[in-house]
Amino acid sequence: MNSNVIMDVYNISETQENTMNKDKGVFMTAQEVNKEIEILKTVFDIVRLVDVSRTAPVNIGSDDCSYEAEHKCFAVWNKNRRCENCISAKVFARKNRMTKFEFVNDDIYQVIAKYVVIDGTPLVMEMVFKMTDKIFLGAYGSGPLIDKISKFNRELYEDPLTGARNRRYFEEQLKPLDKMVAIAMIDVDNFKQINDSYGHVAGDEALCTIVRTIFDHVRANDVVLRYGGDEFLLMFEEIPEKVFQQKLEDIRKEIAMADVPEYKEIRLSTSVGGVYGNCKVRDGVVEADKLLYQAKRQKNCVAYKRI
After folding, report:
1. What predicted TM-score, i.e. pTM, was given to this entire model?
2. What is the pLDDT of residue 230?
């Protein structure tokens, strides 16, 4: 699948199961799932098990499961980072089934993902089928349809003001993950005073300035997310601890030196809470939030710990 453009459609079909049920096909043994995969491969082009937190395909043996660490699940789409609209992350969080379409150049793929528990290990089974019926595109053709889907994807998980990811992205794509190396919460000091003194337009410009500064210090696969009004969440999957610590200090210092366009008299400062160590995302966010409030007592500083 060679492509630089991949567009996703979500919620084409979604079951209403929001809690884990005991229907056949959800709970299976290693022997049962391997037999099912072999049968499904006669219909689908790709059938695989995925560990969402590791973004890795999983091989189920008779005694245990092994992770293809060198082969990330998104590599099949010629991507070098986690899919921003990951259907498997949604399925894992909701413990249900979902269907989407992916467009790779002019090729259309239907992807079905379902939550499964294999000998007590929760995973997602992905089934991919290349569609050859161009009637699906109707009168639009592939180009306009892909443009519409691209716009939908951008708006789904993007904060319209700052361009950072939005809270919905956190709830649907990140919160269910079991593994994250580094997490930081950033809060703007005295933001209410900026709004009260200069107006909400100035406040918006201040937030945009902060996000632009953060973007200058992160990689393409790092997450910058607007968590609340003037709170931002940063997440890193693979980063050395010392690099992470220095990055938080650099971001704090650069924000303090940044000029807000058309409001040069506004001086910004932020408080930062950062945690490092393999942890569940929801647990790491709670710990980072506690450290953030420690930092806010002093303001314009970083509170940090390893967990």
Report:
1. 0.78
2. 97
